[in-house]
Amino acid sequence: MAYTIEQYNALQAAIAEGALSVRYADKSVTYRSLDEMMRILKHMSTELGLNACNDGGRRYTSFSKGYCP
């Protein structure tokens, strides 16, 4: 499924508010748990390329064949 950044932001805002329902445009989704919302948010960020090779740590210059540790 193709996600948009607006859908990602709406889900992120709902998680921050503690709501289990998300409304985007003319659609509404009710999730079963916060855990389910977190799993979908992680999946969305992967699909959108928001966490590609982002481990949050220090960065050192290295040369490789594209492997992201």
Short description:
The chain has 69 residues and is an alpha+beta fold. The protein has helices spanning 5-17, 34-48, and strands at residues 21-24, 27-30.
Describe this structure in words.
The two termini are 26 Å apart. The chain has a domain at 5-48. The chain is elongated, with a radius of gyration of 15 Å. Helices cover 41% and strands 12% of the residues. It is of the alpha+beta class and 69 residues long. It has helices at 5-17, 34-48, and strands at residues 21-24, 27-30. The protein has a two-stranded antiparallel ribbon. Strand 1 (21-24) and strand 2 (27-30) form a beta hairpin.
Key traits:
alpha+beta; elongated; 2 helices; two-stranded antiparallel sheet; 69 residues
Adjacency order of strands in the biggest sheet = 1-2
User: In what range is the share of β-strand residues?
Assistant: 5-15%
Please give the oligomerization state of what you see.
single chain
Order of helices and strands: HEEH
What general form does the structure show?
elongated
Could you give a short account of the major beta sheet?
2 strands, antiparallel
Mean pLDDT: 83
Q: What is the number of helical segments per DSSP (H or I, 4+ residues)?
A: 2
Structural class: alpha+beta
Low-confidence stretches: none
End-to-end separation in angstroms reads 26 Å
Got a strand count?
2
